[in-house]
Structures are given as structure tokens and as C-alpha cells.
Write a structure and sequence with these properties.
There is one protein chain. The chain folds into two domains: 173 residues, Cytochrome Bc1 Complex, Chain D, domain 2, CATH 1.10.760; 149 residues, Cytochrome c-like domain (Cytochrome Bc1 Complex, Chain D, domain 2, Orthogonal Bundle), CATH 1.10.760.10. By secondary structure, it is mainly α. Helices cover 36% and strands 3% of the residues. The strands form two sheets. It has a two-stranded antiparallel ribbon. The protein has a two-stranded antiparallel ribbon with strand order 3-4. The longest helix has 26 residues. It is built from 14 helices and four strands.
Length: 392
Amino acid sequence: MKNALYLLRWQMLSLLAILAACELAVEKAPEIAAPDLPGEFYNYSDVEMPPQMAGGFFNGGMVIDNNMLINFVDVPVGNTFEMSNITDAGATLGRVLFYDRQLSINNAVACGSCHRQEFAFADGQTGSPGFGGKMTPRNSMAIVNVALNNNLFWDSRLASLREMVIQPVQNHIEMGMESMDVLSSKLAKSDFYPPLFEAAFGSPEVNEDRIASALTQFLSAMITANSKFDHGQENGFVNFSELEKMGKALFFSERAMCSSCHSGANFSAPDGPGDPYGTPTLKGTANIGLDLVYKDNGKGEGQFKIPSLRNIALTAPYMHDGRFNTLEEVVEHYNSGIQAHRNLDPKFIGPDGNPKRLELNALEKSALVAFLKTLTDEELLRDIRFSDPFQR
């Protein structure tokens, strides 16, 4: 009996020590210095599109060849309000929130920890470390014209950008915040947040809705459409090398069929109402034959979101699990590596019932990679409006 009491006492003391250590870790988390912001807000409210989209943000078009037109997708209904209600003050607050590590329970990680500007707002890792050092099971998706997406996350579980920005904050691996009320109270105690909230919303009150709105405004203003490909629209692609032209022709060909999944000016899933991938069972996802048996089934049966290809050269590693390190590996998968999964997208099934093989030669594979690299927007990597305002 005495031994049992000693054991119970030892276990209770150990538990108290662990709890104290956890509490100490939170209390002694790194202090966050005030952000370095300009005297006047940067311009976020005027979303400027390049000349080839001068027809308007919602209905502008881009001519690919003499007989091919790519239209800029309509803003999904759920995000239309956010796109038309960006304010400079609101997006500035969103920028600060995006890079502030206080949004995690122990001040360890920010949204910007997993979405880094130099990687076109991916992070260059297979999985991302969360607030406690655990790794996320999926690759961090790049933030690419995110307000133009009908479906969000690798499993397309959300359509609302406002809902999307909150989920990582409360995720038990990513940022670990126990509730948005706790976060709101935490931020309200900061010296620099009340003035920013007042500028954005008319009063210093901090709450979940305002946090979500500011983050949404910042991400909605993050438009990327200034690549070599975009400039090629203006001059008939005279700026393209012969290899890049070959890759472009392959990309839009019936043979390679790349543009049937990566379509529109955003090079993303045609998943709006009435589109091929817009059904409730797909929601912008496809099974592309990565495995015969999936450890992670995505939306279901191995279906994962068809991502935008804009800035794709900067966002390695690729796929939901980061299994491919290079674009060459990605191209080779479609060329010869598609697995005969029972739920394989019909597009990848040949007349004989087996996965299609593109049988691209070495030059053609290099051409496709060269074309994909023309979708890089270098200006996005240098745009100070989307940079980290905190002095690390």
C-alpha cells in the first residue's frame, strides 16, 4: 500500500512538473517586436492587372495562339465580397497578422513560416514544422491567386477563404491556438494591434471576424500575373525561346492534355459550376495515379486538389506529400509513372484500359519544363507589400 502511494505521489509530481514546464514555455515564449511599417499604407486596394488583362479583372482574356483564348476565371461567389472590399489598412493589418508568430500558442510559428515569399509562398519542404516541432502530413500549398480558387486545401474541404485562414491557426500541429477568443485577447494586449485594428475597422476591438477579414484581404491582394508567359501575350511570344515555344505547344496539345486540368489564366482546375471538375464528387480534385494504395486518400480514393501552376518552378517539392523534388520528376510521372488505381481520372486511361503513356522524348520533356518555368513571377518575390514586416 505504501509503495502504491509513493508511486501515485511520484506520478502526480511528474505530471505537475510537465504542466509547469508547458506553462513556462508559453509564458517565456519569444517576445515579438513591433512590425516595421511605412508611414503611409501601401496600396493593396487597387489590384493592378497587366496590359493583356486590360479587359477587366473578372472578364479579361489572354490570347495564347491565334485560335486559342484563356479567360481569367471569375472570382468564386464565396470570395467575391473579399476581392471587392480590400482596403489598404485592412490588408496592412492582414500582412502583420500573416507574419506574426503570436498567432501560434507559443509564439513559435506564423502563417509566413510555412508560406515564404522567396518560395512564392510555399516553403520548400516536404512537410512543415508546427508550433511544437511536429511535421504537417502534407506539403504546404503555395499561395497563388488564392481568392480565385473555388476549392481550398489539398482535399478541397473548404471554398471560403475566410474559413481557410482560421483553420491553420487552430490546427493541433500547425499553430495550436486553443480558440480564437484566446487569440483575440492575446493580440488585444499588444501595443501595436489596437491602432491597426482601429485603422482597418474603425475601432480597436480585436475579434475572430476581424482577424479573418484582415488576413483574407491581404491574401486576396496577392495577385501573381507578371510572368514571362504573361508578357508573351503582348508580343506573340517573341520573348520565348524555341524550346519554350515547343513546351507551350505540348502543354496545350491533345497529346499531353496538361491544359485540360491546369486551365484558365490561373492554370488551375476548371472547377466552377458546370466545369468538368466542378462536381461535388470532384471539387477540383483528381486521382493522378500516384499510388495503387494511398496512405493519405485526400478528398477520397486518392483524389487531391489540382493546383495552379503559376510560379511552379519555385514551389518544390511537388504533390501533396512532396514526393517529387524537381519538375523533371513531375513530367516523368505523367510520361511513364501513372499507376492503375481503380479511381484513376479517366483522362489518364488509354483505350486498352491501362494508364496512358505519353512517350515524350528527352527534348520534349525538357521543353515542357522550360515552358513551366515561364510561369514564374519574379516581381512577386520582391514586392515589399507582401514581405515580412517584423525585424528578426
